[in-house]
Amino acid sequence: MTYKTDEIWEDKWVNTTCGVCYCGCGAKVRVVNGVPVKIEGIKESTMGGNNAGLCGKGAAGLMYYHDPNRIKKPLLRTNPEKGIGVDPKWKEIEWDEALDIIATKMKKSWKMTPTKFFLPIRP
Ligand code: SF4
């Protein structure tokens, strides 16, 4: 998305967490006209890759958003054959369909082996 600087109608910082790895470091993102343009660590955060800042991966995480090849919808593997060099034949599907598929598989797993079913629950 491109925009001219004289057409700024929104310029704000949004607190969030970095999602590049599982550490979940505190982060804040500058959003201009609905587009994230900068990411920084939150100094006051107790979680931080580098003195409550972001590590290199986290700082570069903004590039995921702007990647022209970013996957924006769920993909369903349609080729049951698996292996090196085998085309998975991904098919783009809607979120409702993806969530139905996941819920159905989770219910099936729960019925088969509830003791092996794991859901992380945060206090
Ligand atoms: S800043 Fe680095 S360590 Fe922290 S969540 Fe992001 S990638 Fe992980």
Largest sheet: 3 strands, antiparallel
Which percent range fits the helix content?
Answer: 10-25%
Identify low-pLDDT runs.
none
Structural class: alpha+beta
Terminal Cα span: 39 Å
Alpha plus pi helix count: 3
CATH superfamily of the largest domain: ADC-like domains
Strand line-up in the sheet with most strands: 1-2-3
β-strand number: 5
Radius of gyration: 20 Å
Q: Judging from the principal axes of the Cα atoms, what is the shape?
A: extended
Which CATH C-level class of the largest domain is it? Mainly Beta
List SSEs in N-to-C order.
EEEHHEEH
Average pLDDT score: 88
CATH topology group of the largest domain: N-terminal domain of TfIIb
Portion in beta strands: 15-25%
- How many structural domains in the coordinates? 2
Bound chemical compounds: iron/sulfur cluster
Architecture of the largest domain, according to CATH? Single Sheet
